[in-house]
Specification:
There is one protein chain. By secondary structure, the protein is of the alpha/beta class. The chain has one domain. A hairpin with a 2-residue loop joins strand 3 and strand 4. It contains 6 helices and 8 strands, in the order H-E-E-H-H-E-E-H-E-H-E-H-E-E. The C terminus is likely disordered. The strands form 2 sheets. Strands 2-1-6-7 form a 4-stranded mixed sheet. Strands 3-4-5-8 form a 4-stranded antiparallel sheet. The longest helix has 26 residues.
Amino acid sequence: MAAKGPSMDLSSFQDIMTCILGILILIILLTGIDASQIVVLVATPKQASEDDRRPILFECRHNQLFRIDPEQLKSLCDAKTAELWENAGGNESEFLKSAAQVSIKVPGYRLDYAMSLTGRYLLYPDMAAEGYAFGDYRKETTNDWFGAQIIKVNPYDQFVCFFVRPDSFRVFQEARAVAWGRGCLIACELQQERNPIIVGDMSGDRLLPQ
């Protein structure tokens, strides 16, 4: 009868494997919890870069709507330029000195005039300003403020762009629903609570959100 060798104690190995298995289970659980908390932001579809549609701009702030009209901004800046140039007597240095100190009030905003000389319009939101709030967006008509704005949009060569503040996603959804009902293409850009908005480009012949 063959002699038996000393028996091997595997209890330590089993303890190690149990610990490893426990760690793997813990990692899987933590990964699942983290994955469930990930917020995915899906942008509203926007036109392709080669699309020639022009933007109609609105800001959503304090759950109210504000219209940003680049043509109005351009007219105001052109008038201010003529005024400052006349006051400076055609002296470029005096004109630039005056321009650096000018800001223009527009409904809902303060416009940095000096920036407009570069072809871009820098708008600081007036946090005390009152915008347009829906009663019931499902009953919005062309006699109401936003309905009257949207009915003017030509969906073949324009699209509607919303600048959305953190407190105003609800009014964005309501305004988007109204605009979709008129067949408009929609885009949105998320904004921080108080950061200024810049519209325009360096060429000055097209005004686009930045």
